[in-house]
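Task 17 of the worksheet. Students: predict the tertiary structure of the chain below and write it out as structure tokens. Keep your answer in the requested format; marks are given for formatting as well as content.
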Amino acid sequence: MLKFVMLPPQDELRRNWAERLQQELSQYRVICAETDQEAQRELVDADAAFGWVPPDLLPCAARLRWLQSPQIAPPADFYYPELVAHPVVVTNPRGTFNDHIAQHVLMCVLALARGLPDYYDAQRQRRWNVDARTAPYVDLTSATALIVGVGGIGQEAARLCIACGMQVIGVDPRWEFDPPSVEKHSPTDLDTLLPRADFVIVTVPHTPETEGMWHADRFRCMKSSAYFINIGRGMTTRLSDLTAAIQDGTIAGCALDVFEVEPLPADHPLWAQPRVLLTPHIAAKDAENIPDRQFAILLDNAGRFAAHQPLRNVVDKTVWY
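Model answer:
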């Protein structure tokens, strides 16, 4: 019999998943470890686990062969050198909210193209101002979107942009998807592609390679009329450089759902900038079907692991995704 450990911290959802796993798969003994001490004890003979294995507990996990990450892009300390070197295979729940986050991207594109932030400011001030828009209207049928990170979310965002009549350019280091009508490039082409884009849409995870990749020099490569949209990870973008680029007119504006520091401080100048949309890391929040989708991947992988079949959503631990 295989042993599967649900690592702390526990909540109602994790306990429910553990119970459902036990009911669905008789090949497993499923343990909910409520404390770090219990996790240390249970990991000694565990074959698989869900959650984060801290560095001090990894030496206990001599038999661990599969670890399901709770997040697609977990905190940076999830992948540490000892875990990377460990033979354990890490999988994640990617693909469970591609549609929800892509819809959030489309909302941002449409709002910025039509000048909605300016009209909303006028609405809050009770002003009937037909000239409230402070930047030119962007006709999407003649606009170009540059999507940086064309994984599950990026390819769905590309589909929606194309449906609006946009030309789409994609940049990705490993093309797992082949979205039709997308001009495909590698990251080495990024700086030469930026001047072509009316919207730069970022979906990349936080990795050692992507941290701080959006900085002043990159913003200077963009059109002065272009908008920057980030729904990937906040640590990819130097917020001070982005703020300066908007304030001095290097780019037209931005839409952010993720930030270098979260929550964004109340006194940060971006709050008051025109042509800026800020949402508090909620692009996939409260979508009711996401937990069921994530459990379905966990259950499927548990079945595959028991049957010695290839696992879904395997992570390259060296690059964190």
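Marker's comment: The radius of gyration is 22 Å. The chain has a mean pLDDT of 97.
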